[in-house]
Amino acid sequence: MKRILCLAILLVVAAVSAAAQRGGEAPPAAAPSGPGYPAWAYAITPPPPPGAARPPAPPEDTTSVHHIPGTTRGFTVAQIADLRGPADWFPEDHPVMPSIVAVGRQPMVRSCSYCHYPNGKGRSSNGGVAGLPVAYILQTLDDFKNGLRKPGDPRKVNVNQMIAFAKNMTPEEMRDAAEYFASVPWTQWVRVVEARMVPKTDAEGSIFFKAPGGGMEPIGMRIIETPEDDEQTEPLRNPRSGFIAYVPPGSVKKGEALVTTGGNGKTVACTICHGTDLRGLGPVPGIAGRSPSYLARQMYDIQVGSRHGEWSGLMKPVVAKLTNEDFVNITAYVSSRPMPPAPGSRLQTAAVR
Q: How far apart, in whole angstroms, are the C-alpha atoms of residue 100 and residue 241?
């Protein structure tokens, strides 16, 4: 079922791109190249081979009511994926959502809770915004609105969507969203595991889901961040079911040296600005225990100049010399830092094994 939903999204994106080309606009940008590009962090869904057509999606079951552990609530797939206000499985896990978060302002601004979840945890494909400083969230929205924050890989559809949403949000809506998500504590969402072999995966909707045929493959120099339970993530969008990040053996230890000391001039110690526990200082965001894919995308985006807002200037010299291997090691360590477990979550304090 998750593949049906992802396919529908891809078809919409393809239609929009085709319409833009017919209107005389430039064709979609190609993938970035070079040894520093962390393709694993973007998880862009590959296009079909030239001349190949995607098979039509089978009819979607829109009437069956689905359930998940820990709640008596039930929703249909259409209710779960409603862009105007998606299903809220656990309203007891978060404060009352302001209107812009719960339902958005249609059709110009989608509900924040659709992509970021009502608890602000989100997925590896977007940003986990729970527990971030109000000032940082507002600065981020302003950067999107003013063209100062774009994706390092132009094919990252949801970043381009955020730019459009930010341009249409009022200052009051921005503050309501920022204050809401800042009030929700960030708790454990990613479990980091060192492994030489990892499950085979397919990128769909900028998320790595387990390949239908199963099997294992070498991890190489990348991080594979995948749902703990594919079905709970898509289509059920369970906000208590997090992610597992497979990282190369030894990467956490290597990342610790870069994060805490700067690696003999390779970079600047992250702890200087983000705090000794990496949970943030003042308006500087916390990075401990967050998505390694998201963190790597932000470092690469800053490195290539796609992000150049107020805070990005401070990060520019920090990321200037970093390679893909550095991105892997740094984010493996940062994401492995323990955080409190989420209410009802199956995730325990992150452990590297």
A: 24
State the pTM of this model. 0.88
Amino acid at 348: Q
Classify residue 105 by its DSSP letter: B
Of 69, 55, 52, the residue nearest 4 (C-alpha): 55
Domain ranges of the chain: 2-20+35-46+70-182, 190-336
Residues 6+ apart with CB under 8 A from 339: 186, 187, 188, 189, 288, 289, 349, 350
Express each pLDDT in 143-178 by its tens digit. 999 999 999 999 999 999 999 999 999 999 999 999
- The two tokens of residue 65 are 């009511």
- Pair 210, 199: CB distance under 8 Å: yes
Work out the pLDDT band at 349, boundaries 50, 70, 90: very low
- CATH, range 2-20+35-46+70-182: 1.10.760.10
Measured CA distances, 183 to 92, 131, 178 (Å)? 14, 6, 9
Fold of 190-336: Cytochrome Bc1 Complex; Chain D, domain 2 (1.10.760)
Strands 243-247 and 190-194 turn out to be parallel
CB 207 within 8 A of CB 124: yes
List the 224-227 sheet strands across, edge first.
Answer: 190-194, 243-247, 224-227
Alpha-carbon distance of 196 to 194, in angstroms, equals 7
pLDDT tens-digit series, residues 241-261:
999 999 999 999 999 999 999
